[in-house]
Design a protein that fits this description.
GO biological process, one term: molybdate ion transport
CATH topology of the largest domain: Rossmann fold
Helix content: 10-25%
InterPro entries: AAA+_ATPase, ABC_transporter-like_ATP-bd, ABC_transporter-like_CS, Mo/tungstate-bd_C_term_dom, Molybdenum_import_ModC, Mop_domain, P-loop_NTPase, Transp-assoc_OB_typ1
Number of strands: 22
Largest sheet: 6 strands, mixed
Distance between the termini: 18 Å
Shape: globular
Number of helices: 9
Protein name: Molybdenum ABC transporter ATP-binding protein
Organism: Actinopolyspora mortivallis
Strand content: 35-45%
GO molecular function, one term: ATP binding
Length: 359
């Protein structure tokens, strides 16, 4: 799928081009007002820009120059929004069967497709339940089943985890990782949460003030951001490697942590932790259940009451970027300067291990 969108409104302009390959997940990140929803609306057909073109496999859905604007119901777009807008008068089974029925399947076949998707998303036991009797996590799984059962040509995810609580979101994120990894459908994910991009997206497109400020493979963009905005949203430490029983292994070093979402040993995974969880030492600390990594400081950035230390793991050929946030007093006490080699330490309890998109 390819899209080109230009739109002008008082005080706002959007100018975006993007492409998503079959089976690929593109995450669109950006602050409120950056243009994420407008881009999504152009793809669904609910927004008509001044200039735009949207095409999939050679079929044109939108071409403002030629006067082409295929209506939403003919675009075969699957949408999973922030809140699962299920039909309240239909059972879970009939909600999921609605898409196949609208696509031309007979009732019996549509229900069979619905049952298959409910089973794949581990909610088959909810088939006869009314939407009002579902929890938030259950309703979102059913909404995902409904979107996929319609056999969409493009899947759009609009902040799909933002309305879920902190206990439910990780399970849903893990489910999306598993389901999207098995799909050949192009997928666009709009999110404000960097973890969604880390776990789900092959590539990232970062919008700010209506324009693209960064784009590329997820790991490259988020681990080496080129703009201050991207650095801000990617404020977590992200160590990409291979899942092992204790955590994540990279370059022969294991970062120990707790599993936030299911991940199989040997699969791509990321160890994620906050810069504020990192302690800095001149000598390697001993006798504690901490991850200790030798790093070289590459920059010190004052940030109000703290100082952000930018570093790279001390490895030949370039190390993994890491950051720590410490007090100005700690910087003075340790006498820290760019180029110094020190040790970053973080407790295993502060590290969350997530499955990782291959992008």
């Amino acid at each position: 799928m390819s899209a080109e969108v230009r739109l002008r409104r008082p005080g706002f302009e959007l100018d975006v081009t993007c492409a998503v390959r079959p089976g690929e997940v593109l995450a669109v990140l950006g602050p409120n007002g950056a243009g994420k929803s407008t881009l999504l609306g152009t793809l669904t057909g609910s927004v008509l820009p001044e200039h735009g073109r949207v095409a999939l496999d050679g079929r044109v859905w939108l071409d403002t120059r030629r006067g082409v604007d295929v209506p939403t119901h003919r675009r075969r777009v699957g949408l999973l929004a922030q809140r699962p807008t299920l039909f309240p008068h239909l059972s879970v089974l009939e909600n999921v069967a609605f898409g196949p029925r609208a696509g031309g399947h007979r009732a019996r076949r549509a229900r069979a497709i619905a049952r298959e998707w409910l089973d794949r998303l581990d909610v088959a036991d909810l088939a006869g339940r009314a939407p009002a009797r579902l929890s938030g996590g259950q309703a979102q799984r059913v909404a995902l089943a409904r979107a996929l059962a319609a056999d969409p040509e493009v899947l759009l995810l609009d902040e799909p985890l933002s309305a879920l609580d902190v206990d439910t979101a990780p399970a849903m994120r893990g489910l999306l990782h598993r389901v999207l990894g098995a799909q050949r459908t192009p997928c666009v994910l709009v999110t404000h949460d960097v973890l969604d991009a880390v776990v789900l997206a092959d590539r990232v497109l970062v919008l700010d003030e209506g324009g693209v400020v960064e784009r590329g493979e997820t790991g490259r963009v988020l681990s080496r951001p080129r703009t201050s905005f991207t650095a801000r949203i990617a404020g977590l430490n992200l160590v990409r490697g291979t899942a092992v029983a204790e955590g994540v292994e990279v370059d022969g070093v294991t970062i120990r942590g707790g599993t936030a979402e299911p991940v199989e040993p040997g699969d791509p995974a990321a160890a994620v932790f906050a810069p504020s969880a990192v302690a800095v030492h001149r000598a390697a600390p001993e006798g504690s259940p901490r991850n200790v990594v030798r790093v070289r400081l590459v920059g010190l950035e004052p940030r109000g009451d703290t100082v952000r230390l930018r570093a790279e793991t001390d490895a030949e050929g370039g190390g993994v970027p890491l950051t720590a946030e410490v007090t100005p007093a700690a910087v003075a006490e340790l006498g820290l300067e760019p180029g110094d080699r020190v040790f970053f330490a973080v407790k295993a309890t502060e590290v969350a291990v997530h499955p990782l998109s291959v992008g």
